[in-house]
Amino acid sequence: MVRGNHDGTDYFNGVFDYYAYTSQFNGFYQEGSIDNSYKTMTIGDVDYLFITLDYGASDAELDWAGSVIEQYPQHQVILST
Q: pLDDT by residue (tens digit) across 42-59?
């Protein structure tokens, strides 16, 4: 899930409760918020890293995404924002 430009972060996180989704992702930028998340998955013989970034991601969020990518050098990366 990716927040759109018309979705307020409080509303978005209220509808999509962080604690309901923690088991479905490998990690989040900020505890309590699903605005920025990542998940790894193997499909066939290919390892993927899926990253979702908040609308208008900050430099700190982009740095976080870069550090996550560095942790998975053998994965194909799919980034959604």
A: 999 999 999 999 888 999
β-pairing, 37-43 vs 27-28, is: antiparallel
Closest CA to 41 of 66, 18, 75, 1: 75
d(CA 39, CA 20): 15
| CA pair distance 58, 16, nearest whole angstrom | 21
CB atoms within 10 A of CB 74: 7
Q: What pTM, to 2 d.p., does this model score?
A: 0.81
CB neighbour list of residue 25: distance below 8 Å, 6 or more residues apart: 34, 37, 38, 39
Dihedral (Cα; 7, 60, 24, 20), 10-degree rounding? -50
